[in-house]
Amino acid sequence: MIVVVDSGTGNFQSVVRMVQSLGFKVKLTNNYSEIEAADKIILPGVGHFDKVSLALSKNNLSELIKLKAVVQKTPILGICVGMQLFCNGSEEGKEPGFGLINADVVKFSADTKKGLKIPHMGWNNVVSVRENPLIPMGVSDERFYFVHSYYVKPKEDNITIGVSEYGSLFCSAFMKDNLFGVQFHPEKSHRFGKQLIRNFLEI
């Protein structure tokens, strides 16, 4: 069973519809038992880091997701704040992350000389920097839709699989064992996002 975790912090029906359009059965839920039984999990997140973290903790889902990740080795895809929650914590809030990825979440610095604004919003390229099942190597036109003011800054080597540029290069996708994170929104990224979701579901 494929589960999209409903943290109650956004409308995640677009993620569900994309999975359904690929021919997979999927359920949007915050039910502990249904998430516990999932074969693959998609964890979207929208809004403030602490709000999403507290919403998951309230339903005991944070510990369940960590259990699924570490003990059961369930493939999990974190999207946007969902990606950031895998990390140690975020400059955006005070709540701890899951600590599954040794990385911090930091805020972009506005560079008015380069015309950069915060949040980073719109289409941007993602370049694959090592072999991985989500984003093919050697493809220069992989474009995805971003909306974020904070980004993941890894502290460990060889987890970054995709980079993008906004003022400077930043980690826009990572992978560690069965955990995957993308800073962009594949559900808003048309054919590129659809293929990425397919790649994840076929792992």
Please name the defining characteristics of this protein:
alpha/beta, Rossmann fold
Can you offer a commentary on this structure?
There is one protein chain. With 203 residues, the protein is α/β, with parallel strands linked by helices. It has one domain: Rossmann fold (3-Layer(aba) Sandwich), CATH 3.40.50.880. It is 25% helix and 32% strand. It has helices at 13-21, 32-36, 49-58, 61-70, 81-85, 190-201, and strands at 2-5, 26-29, 40-45, 76-80, 89-90, 103-107, 120-125, 127-128, 143-148, 150-154, 160-166, 168-176, 179-182. The protein has an 8-stranded mixed sheet. A 3-stranded mixed sheet has the order 5-6-10. A two-stranded antiparallel sheet has the order 7-9. Strand 11 and strand 12 (168-176) form a beta hairpin. The mean pLDDT is 94.
